[in-house]
Write a structure and sequence with these properties.
CATH class of the largest domain: Alpha Beta
Oligomer: single chain
Largest sheet: 9 strands, mixed
Radius of gyration: 21 Å
Strand content: 15-25%
Order of helices and strands: EHEHEHEHEHEHEHHEEEHEEEEHHEH
Number of strands: 15
Helix content: 25-40%
Number of helices: 12
Low-confidence stretches: none
Strand order of the largest sheet: 14-13-12-11-7-10-9-8-15
Number of domains: 2
Shape: globular
C-alpha cells in the first residue's frame, strides 16, 4: 500500500518527535506541518515539507490521509473537530482535551462521524504494559486484589521558571498522573472512586509537589499511588522501563499488582508465586516474563496507520481517553475538596 500522507499540527518538542517517527517509518510520509512560529517554519524547511500558519489551510490543501495533533491542550478540541469534519483520522496527543466538556464533544463527534481518533497514551503500546495486560487477562495472577504504584522524580529548578508551573493546575497531578491513571485502568480495570491528599512542602508554591491517592476499582480491587516531582529516584516509568528517549534507563519498578495466585512488578516483569499453591511460609518462586524489546513510540505509529486504514479500532479511542481524563480530574477534585469522589459523577 502507498505510505500514509500525514500532517503534523505543532512543531514543539512533541510535534518534532512525531515528525521524526513519521519520517522514519516506511508506512508513512510527512507531507506538511502547521505551526505559527518562525521556529516551526524553520523546522518544516529542515524536513523538506510545507509549513502552514493556519492548520485549517493544511487540512484543506495538503492532500492528507491522516493528522497528528501536538498542539497545546487548550487547542485540542477545535483542532480535533476540524479533522473530524474533514473525515481525517487523527492521532491526538494526550490529554484528549483540557476539560471533560471538550473531551465529550470530541468523543461524540468522532463516533457520530465514524472518523477514528487515537489518543496518544503511548504506554499502552509499551511491551511491559502489553505483556502485563496479557498475563492478567490470562489469569496468571488469579483474582486481582491490590495494586500499588509510585511516580517519584525531581524536576530541575529551571522547569519552574514558567509561572503557570508554580500555580494551581500546573503540578504533577494534572500533568503527570494522567499517564499512571491510564496504566492503572488498562491493567486493573475501571476506577470507581478515589480519595487524595497533596502537599507543597518541597517548594512552597501554590501548586502541589507531592500527592497520595487511594483508589477503589469497579471490580473490587483497591490500590494506592504516591507521587512527587521533588524526589530523585528510578521509580518512574520513563526511567524504569527504558522506553523514554529523554531519560537514562535504570531498571526498577513503579507498579506492583497483587492477586490470589501471585504478584507482578512492572516494568521489571517479575511474577512471584508459590509452586502448587503453597503455604505462606513456603519459598516463593520468581518467574520473569519476557516481553519483546521494542519501542512503544513506533508501535503507536504503526497502530495509528492501521486505524487510519480501517484495519484496526483505536486501542485508546476518544471515549476511552475521556474516561482517563475523568479519573485524573477526580484525583484533583478529591485533593481540593476532601472526601471520596466517584468517577461516574465526573462524567
Amino acid at each position: 500500500m502507498d505510505p500514509l500522507r500525514i500532517g503534523v499540527m505543532g512543531a514543539g518538542i512533541i510535534g518534532r518527535e512525531h515528525a521524526a517517527l513519521v519520517q522514519s517509518s516506511p508506512d508513512t510520509i510527512l507531507v506538511a506541518i502547521a505551526d505559527v512560529t518562525g521556529t516551526g517554519r524553520t523546522f518544516a524547511e529542515s524536513q523538506g515539507v510545507a509549513c502552514f500558519g493556519d492548520y485549517r489551510e493544511m487540512l484543506d490543501q495538503a492532500g492528507l490521509d491522516a493528522v497528528i495533533v501536538a498542539l497545546p491542550n487548550a487547542l485540542h478540541v477545535e483542532a480535533g473537530l476540524a479533522c473530524i469534519e474533514r473525515g481525517l483520522p487523527t492521532l491526538m496527543e494526550k490529554p484528549i482535551a483540557d476539560s471533560l466538556e471538550g473531551a465529550l464533544r470530541l468523543s461524540s463527534a468522532s463516533e457520530a462521524a465514524g472518523v477514528p481518533m487515537l489518543v496518544g497514551h503511548h504506554r499502552r503500546h509499551s511491551p511491559d504494559m502489553v505483556e502485563s495486560h496479557r498475563a492478567i487477562q490470562a489469569g496468571e495472577l488469579g483474582d486481582l486484589y491490590t495494586v500499588s504504584g509510585m511516580w517519584l522524580c525531581r524536576k530541575d529548578d529551571d522547569y519552574f521558571n514558567q509561572p503557570w508551573r508554580r500555580e494551581v493546575g500546573g503540578g504533577p497531578i494534572l500533568i503527570n498522573l494522567i499517564h499512571e491513571i491510564d496504566c492503572l485502568r488498562f491493567l486493573c480495570g475501571e476506577i470507581d472512586s478515589l480519595q487524595a491528599v497533596t502537599a507543597n512542602k518541597a517548594r512552597g508554591f501554590d501548586v502541589e509537589d507531592s500527592f497520595a491517592v487511594v483508589i477503589t476499582f469497579a471490580n473490587g480491587m483497591i490500590g494506592s499511588f504516591v507521587g512527587s516531582d521533588a524526589v530523585p529516584s528510578p521509580f518512574i516509568w520513563d526511567v524504569a522501563s527504558g522506553q523514554s528517549p529523554n531519560f537514562l534507563h535504570e531498571p526498577s519498578n513503579c507498579f506492583v499488582i497483587g492477586g490470589s495466585n501471585g504478584s507482578l512488578s512492572v516494568p521489571g516483569m517479575e511474577l512471584w508465586r508459590y509452586e502448587d499453591n503453597g503455604h505462606w511460609r513456603d519459598p516463593l518462586v520468581r518467574h520473569r516474563l519476557q516481553p519483546p524489546r521494542i519501542s512503544c513510540y513506533p508501535e503507536q505509529l504503526s497502530h495509528f496507520v492501521a486505524v487510519a486504514r480501517g484495519q484496526a479500532e483505536p486501542i485508546v479511542s476518544a471515549r476511552e481517553a475521556t474516561k482517563t481524563l475523568a479519573a485524573t480530574l477526580a484525583v484533583d477534585k478529591a485533593a481540593r475538596e476532601g472526601g471520596t469522589v466517584h468517577v461516574g459523577d465526573m462524567l
